[in-house]
Each structure stands twice: as C-alpha cells, then as structure tokens.
Amino acid sequence: MALFTLVTGPSDGEPTPEGGEGLARLLRRLELAHREAGRPTYRVIGKDCGLSASTICRIFNARKPPAWDNLERVLRALGVDPDSDSGWRELWIHAENDAHPIAVELSDGLVAPGRESCHHCGVWIADREVHERHHHDLDAITQMIEHLDGTVERLRRQMAAGPAPTPTPRSAG
Q1: What is residue 117's three-state secondary structure?
Q2: How many other C-beta atoms can be found within 10 angstroms of the C-beta atom of residue 161?
Q3: Contact criterion met (CB below 8 Å) for 102 and 57
Q4: Which of 34, 66, 95, 129 could serve as 26's disulfide partner, Cβ 3.0–4.6 Å?
Q5: Ramachandran assignment for 27, one of left (phi > 0), alpha (psi -120 to 50 degrees), beta (any other)
Q6: pLDDT tens digit at each of 173 positions of the chain
Q7: In 3D, which of 102, 93, 98 has the Cα closest to residue 123?
Q8: Residue 7 to residue 36: CA distance in whole angstroms
C-alpha cells in the first residue's frame, strides 16, 4: 500500500518548470513514486532500467517532459506499472501539451475520439484549463491591440487636421 498518494499544486513561490504546470505535476508525482520506492539512487534506478545515472537525473530534474519510453523505464524500475490505470500516460501527455502545444484545425468529418473541439477556434482540446487560459490571454491581447489601433487612428486624424491653433494672449485692458 502506498503511503504517499496526495499530489497537490505548487506552494506559493514554488517555481514551475519551463515545461509548465503539466510538467510540474508529472515531476511531483514522479518524486512521490521515488519516495514510495524507498528513494533508490539514480545509479540503482539506472541499473534496473538500462539508463545512465545522468539520464535519470535529467528526468527527475526535467525542464521539459522526458521521452515517454525513458519515463516508462524509470517507473518500472521504481516498481510502478505505467500501463495501469494510475494516470501516468495522461500526466505525461499534459506535460507534453504544455511544453509543445500543437494546433490542429478540424475539417469536415475529422473526429478525435475522446476529445472535444473548441467552438471558438476549432482545435481539439487536450487540456481544457490550458486551452481556456490561452483564449483568456488571447482576448486580453486582442483588447490591447484594439485599444492601440483606436489610439493610432485618433492620432492620425489629429495630425491630418494640422496643428492646433495657438491661443492668443489676451491683453489686459
């Protein structure tokens, strides 16, 4: 029976790897599996799975998701069955999607089993939270651009109208 099964989000101030929150979740879960296996050294893990200790170190301290086959080998060396319904593959896919998003346009009749498509942009959604965050960011950028476009147009009209008349000083009298 596993003693460490709770996976939570990063604490305040904890850095998120360059690969995004998906990678952060994957690495936290990997660290828990390592702890549950008794914290074997990277050399011991490498011996058990046929990878070098430096490769194991790079996987545990990844800045981008490791190759699935390497992660799978490490998990097996830690006594974890990545093929079981423990969500390892899904965690890895989320990390990959964060690090290397792929926009896929839906064409007539193209269906992605088990995936929904976005009614705004037409891409398949692998991670709804990430997708909605992208739309939110895009909407904010679009609003800024529209504001800047309006400012530029107003300045063009002012320049086309010529310089504003200089007020004449009134004489005291």
Answers
A1: strand
A2: 8
A3: no
A4: 95
A5: alpha
A6: 333 333 334 444 444 455 578 899 999 999 999 999 999 999 999 999 999 999 999 999 999 999 999 999 999 999 999 888 678 998 999 898 888 877 655 555 555 556 677 777 767 777 778 888 888 888 889 899 999 989 989 999 888 888 777 777 777 65
A7: 102
A8: 13
Tokens of 62: 């990844």
Assess contact for 22 and 99: CB atoms under 8 A: yes
Whose tokens are 């939570």? That residue is 8
Spatial CA neighbour of 82 closest among 26, 125, 43, 44: 26
Give the tokens for residue 46: 């490498």
Domain map (residue ranges) of the chain: 21-100, 102-159
pTM check: above 0.70: no
With a CB cutoff of 8 Å and minimum separation 6, the contacts of 108 are none
